[in-house]
Specification:
Layout lengths: L8 E3 L30 E4 L2 E6 L4 E6 L7 H4 E6 L4 E6 L10 E6 L4 E6 L4 E6 L13 E8 L2 E6 L4 E7 L5 E3 L4 E2 L5 E7 L2 E6 L6 E2 L2 E2 L22 E2 L3 E8 L4 E6 L1 H7 L9 E2 L6 E7 L8 E4 L4 E8 L2 E9 L6 H4 L4 E9 L8 E4 L12 E6 L5 E6 L19 E5 L4 E5 L5 E8 L5 E8 L4 E6 L7 E7 L7 H11 L11 H4 L9 E2 L25 E2 L42 H19 L22 H11 L18 H12 L13 H5 L21 E4 L5 E3 L20 H11 L24 H7 L24 H12 L1 H4 L4 H9 L11 E4 L7 H15 L4 E6 L4 E5 L4 E4 L13 H11 L3 E6 L14 E3 L2 H6 L17 E8 L6 E4 L2 E2 L3 E8 L2 E8 L8 E6 L6
Parallel strand pairs: 1-52, 18-19
Antiparallel strand pairs: 2-3, 3-4, 4-5, 6-7, 7-8, 8-9, 10-11, 11-12, 12-13, 12-14, 15-16, 16-23, 17-22, 20-21, 23-24, 25-26, 26-27, 27-28, 29-30, 30-31, 31-32, 33-34, 34-35, 35-36, 37-38, 39-40, 41-45, 42-43, 42-45, 43-44, 46-47, 47-51, 48-49, 48-52, 50-51
Helix pairs in contact: 4-7, 6-7, 8-14, 10-12
């Protein structure tokens, strides 16, 4: 229960709309860059070429008869779809009279558009929601048809495959049954006969940190680096490492805290090696019956680490991928080749396998093939064309063919590279037209980032020729950000040309791997060998996201990259960090600080260390010119996280998420992280009062990031945002190891470890719940049981696989539970709902037709969007199948046409009048919620950030609760909060709703900017969430 009569108001983050001008015209639309994953984003339907323009939210349709001679004349339509379309599939016809339909997956809108090629318009939008209005079709990616009656859509975030059924008229519906994927991120798919094959993009390669299980000993689980089956373990997942009882009656006990205590509370830099653990699931391809549905018929393992493209030719299946080489420690052993660029193939007869692997970089032409992506087979199955996503189209050196990175390669049916040619920048998809004999004839390559299509004559497979290149879509990305994205994804950044920054950060996220790349030599090769128990050895590090880096400096766990802050006394320095600031934030800005990271990466992991990294065009070690490096830094500060997956439509936190706020940030009920009555951490004197403790915690407001945390060796912690898309957590991935997950599951299910010989039998339950009278006497309080033991949470089931939620919860079942006495389920829900700057309804779509324009379902769905427009959170746009387009202006409650042909003042339409046009014209109309026009990609506009009173924040010490405002439950209450990037004309929201009677006065102290907020109406007793919405559209 709450401990006072004061009301804590939790300062949160969010994004919302901008005001339109006095002239009642259609408002402008904003944009953000998400680097969404394309999966077959270009397709052919007889003589029509369809291109998904991901950043333009549209599909372009071309008449191939007029290509390549007249691309402008060949453009038949530019069809608006959802936000970030990434995949296209053409429905096969069952009869000549069937409508020509196309499915398009919209990654940010969480929807699937159905396009009728006869109308060149969207006629249906498929999506599903739970009882709270939260999408259950979030992050759709790949899409394939098994027949005219059935298609499948991969749901990236949910690890499911959606089943789409079509009736005789061509009307589509979502089947109630979904296909479970017990691996991470299903994307690319293909169909072989009556078999559906689904690839798990983040299937992994069974590498992990060398953790031991709670009852492992050196005898039962020896450390065996290089063992092809299982390399054993090194660090024991226990709260206590050793226990010697000298006199149980006097409490004379010698004990040594274990590695998990060191990691969580002293020094998270635990040196070690990346090992292979064959107990870790490695599920790559799932094979289903397209008719019977249900569980997979077969699961294929050992294909590769990151699976990009699928294709089938007869019974043969092809998979493009990159195989991580992170089991090799140190840059020297890696040899400037982080991944093997691979084509795998196997036959399904109908059982699939075994797989053959082709190292594409070992081709006879001497050219690298970085990040093989889209792949298509000729009609006769004798040839393949493959797009190479690590190519930027920049010609190589004439004297060195190996620097000429191709955008398209041609191959035979056994994966031998026959020919290659450069195209445009970052080709991620390819469509192939065959001649009447089934031979490959023309390839259409989608160069994703420079928004072009290259038309390639592939009749001579040994000598493919680009015959035309034309622009597609209308990418809103600024030129410098686009150039930086190209550089980020270009393998020219590496000496070998075999990998790019994107290789380890696919879609600006993470490869879900750990790497030892902060040392040239492997730790095991040190002379003398580095002892991780006594020395500060190089540590395996998790790959961190590039998304959402604004306002989260520094950009590395150790604070040795883009760190503008001087390190503290006692910082556990690594050899690569001298503790001095890397940049001056006031002078260089965030982009200038990111440039430090760019320089370090290009001279480090991206560069061949043999003989030292040679100077490049700038005179600095490594590749790229000065401008290319600056653009790359700008891109890194411009790409956004996707919207939070479980945020509710009204932008209010759920009750569970509100409990997560208490558990993680405020300890408002006395049962959170800071409870000294429950957690051992407080009792033994090392734990902060909350995880957001500004001086001692790791995840301070506003973004859940921190620098120089006193508690953990002055380490720097990155943002908590995006945890829902990361299943490798913490600096070294230790809590994500199979052993820790297994132990967490045992703890959660009430199966704590028993007798352990190393601990002498005097203590049981470690790391779940300690039980020993001697230890209790020493510490002075009861250790077992903790309240709520066991939790009963689902942490890890090998049959289900490793999940993001399970990994997070596991840390609070073993690593943090003993220290802090709190579980992670409510926190997880908060992190899944917390704002990253956008209203929850961003991207939401509704398609209505004449038959349902005035139905209750339409009224509910459209009413929700209109309410968001009335609140000025978003711009709602509607596109009729007859091409007319309107946008809603909440100030007037009317819809205004974007183009008026007569030049007269546009008086607009009410919602009912608009729907009546749908009926009168017998057309479909698709509504989409867009960002407001003030939101730009990498611009000066920023998300407003809220935190606690800056003066109180500056005086906080370990053990102090956050200075969350606690106004009395009375009218006219004023309190102070910290505020950054808040516009004076901003709107305050309380629990997701605009607060018309709220006001604020801005001010500045030496410790930062603040808002003095006044609430006219009394808030009821309890915890509330305050957000601020700038006029430009950020929330």
């Amino acid at each position: 229960m709450l401990r006072s009569s004061w009301i804590p108001v939790f300062a949160s983050l969010a994004l919302i709309g901008s005001a339109c001008g006095e002239n009642p015209k259609a408002p402008a639309l904003g944009a953000q860059l998400f680097s969404s994953p394309q999966v077959n984003a270009i397709a052919l339907s007889k003589s029509k070429l369809l291109v998904a323009n991901t950043t333009s939210a549209s599909v372009s349709v071309y008449d191939t008869h007029l290509l390549p001679g007249d691309p402008g004349g060949a453009l038949l339509a530019e069809i608006p779809v959802g936000i970030d379309p990434v995949g296209i599939a053409v429905r096969p016809k069952a009869a000549p009279s069937d409508p020509r339909l196309v499915l398009v997956t919209n990654h940010i809108s969480d929807s699937i558009s159905v396009i009728d090629l006869g109308q060149l318009a969207v006629v249906q939008t498929l999506q599903a929601f739970d009882a709270n209005g939260v999408s259950t079709t979030d992050a759709p990616t790949g899409v394939v048809f098994a027949s005219p009656q059935r298609a499948f859509v991969a749901l990236d975030d949910r690890d499911e495959v959606l089943v789409i059924d079509f009736d005789a008229s061509g009307q589509a519906s979502i089947n109630a049954e979904r296909l479970p994927i017990t691996a991470q991120a299903p994307r690319a798919m293909t169909v072989v006969g009556d078999r559906l094959l689904v690839g798990a993009f983040e299937s992994g390669n069974q590498t992990e940190f060398p953790n031991c299980g709670p009852l492992d000993t050196p005898a039962t689980a020896p450390f065996l680096p290089g063992d092809p089956h299982d390399e054993g373990c090194l660090f024991y997942n226990r709260f206590l490492e050793t226990l010697v009882v000298n006199d149980i009656f006097t409490g004379d006990i010698d004990l040594d805290f274990g590695v998990i205590v060191d990691f969580a509370a002293r020094n998270p830099n635990i040196g070690g090696e990346v090992v292979i653990d064959r107990d870790r699931p490695d599920r790559d391809v799932f094979v289903f019956d397209v008719n019977a549905l249900g569980a997979p018929l077969q699961v294929i393992e050992g294909i590769s680490t990151l699976l990009y493209g699928f294709e089938s030719a007869g019974e043969r299946v092809y998979v493009t991928s990159t195989e991580g080489r992170n089991d090799l420690d140190g840059l020297e052993d890696l040899g400037n080749r982080m991944f093997e660029n691979r084509l795998s193939y196997f036959d399904c007869t109908p059982v699939c396998g075994p797989a053959q692997h082709v190292d594409l970089d070992a081709n006879p032409h001497g050219v690298p093939v970085p990040t093989p992506y889209g792949v298509r087979a000729s009609a006769n199955g004798q040839a393949l064309v493959m797009s190479v996503a690590g190519s930027d189209g920049v010609p190589g050196l004439a004297e060195d063919p190996g620097t000429d990175i191709p955008g398209l390669v041609t191959l035979d049916a056994d994966g031998n590279v026959l020919g290659h040619v450069q195209t445009g920048a970052i080709p991620q998809a390819v469509a192939l037209a065959s001649d009447d004999f089934g031979d490959a004839e023309t390839a259409y390559v989608l160069n994703t980032v420079d928004s072009t299509v290259s038309v390639v004559d592939v009749r001579d497979l040994a000598n493919p020729q680009v015959v035309a290149t034309f622009g597609v879509g209308n990418d809103p990305t600024p030129a410098d950000v686009r150039a930086g994205r190209i550089n980020f994804m270009s393998a020219r950044a590496s000496t070998s040309g075999t990998f790019s920054c994107e290789s380890c950060h696919p879609n600006a996220n993470t490869d879900q791997l750990i790497w030892t790349i902060n040392s040239v030599a492997a730790p095991s090769d040190f002379e003398p060998a580095c002892d991780p128990f006594t020395e500060n050895c190089p540590e395996p590090r998790t790959t961190m996201p590039i998304r959402g880096l604004r306002d989260t400096l520094p950009l590395h766990w150790l604070g040795n990259l883009a760190d503008p802050f001087p390190d503290q006394d006692g910082q556990l320095f690594q050899p690569e960090d001298d503790g001095a600031p890397d940049c001056d934030l006031a002078v260089d800005g965030e982009v200038g600080c990111a440039r430090h990271l760019v320089n370090a990466s290009l001279s480090g992991v991206m560069c061949d260390p043999t003989g030292g990294c040679a100077p490049g065009p700038t005179g600095l070690p490594g590749a790229f010119t000065e401008q290319e490096r600056n653009d790359l830094a700008k891109f890194m500060m411009s790409v956004s996280y996707p919207p939070s997956p479980t945020r509710r439509p009204d932008d209010a936190l759920s009750p569970t998420a509100m409990q997560g706020v208490t558990d993680f940030f405020t300890d408002e009920d006395g049962l959170g992280v800071g409870s000294s009555a429950i957690g051992v951490g407080q009792a033994v004197g090392f734990a902060p009062i909350t995880c957001a403790d500004n001086s001692g915690g790791c995840h301070a407001l506003p973004h859940g990031a921190s620098t120089n945390s006193i508690t953990v060796g002055a380490f720097d912690a990155p943002t908590m945002r995006g945890l829902w898309d990361r299943h490798i957590n913490f600096s070294n991935g230790s809590p994500s190891s199979e052993e820790v997950l297994r132990a967490g599951e045992d703890c959660a299910k009430g199966n704590p470890p028993g007798f352990h010989p190393i601990l002498g039998g005097f203590l049981t339950g470690d790391p779940c719940a300690l039980d020993s009278p001697a230890i209790e006497a020493l510490l002075g309080f009861t250790l077992d049981p903790f309240p709520g033991d066991p939790s009963g949470f689902d942490i890890y089931d090998p049959a289900v696989g490793i999940t993001e939620r399970g990994v997070f919860l596991a840390t609070f079942e073993s690593l943090f539970h003993i220290a802090y006495g709190v579980r992670g389920a409510a926190m997880w829900e908060f992190f899944s709902e917390m704002s990253i700057g956008f209203p929850a309804l961003y991207g939401r779509q509704v398609t209505v037709n004449a038959g349902d324009a005035f139905s209750p379902a339409t009224a509910d769905a459209l009413g929700e969007l209109v309410a968001a427009g009335d609140a000025d959170k978003l711009v709602i746009e509607v596109r009729f199948s007859g091409r007319r387009e309107y946008r809603y202006v909440g100030k007037y409650g009317r819809w205004f046409e974007t183009v008026t042909g007569n030049g007269k003042a546009n008086v607009g339409l009410t919602t009912d009048e608009l729907l009546q046009q749908v009926v009168d014209w017998d057309q479909s109309a698709t509504f989409t919620a867009h960002l407001k026009g003030g939101i730009s990609i990498g611009g000066a506009d920023r998300q407003p950030l809220l935190h606690v009173d800056p003066d109180l924040k500056a005086t906080e010490e370990i053990g102090d609760l956050l200075a969350i405002p606690r106004p009395a439950p009375l009218p006219n209450q004023t309190f102070r909060i910290g505020g950054i990037y808040v516009d004076p004309a901003a709107t305050l929201l309380v629990n997701g709703a605009p607060c018309g009677d709220c006001s604020f006065v801005m001010g500045t102290t030496p410790n930062g900017d603040y808002l003095d907020v006044t609430l006219v109406d009394a808030l009821p007793y309890g915890t509330h969430v305050m957000q601020v919405m700038n006029p430009d559209g950020w929330l």
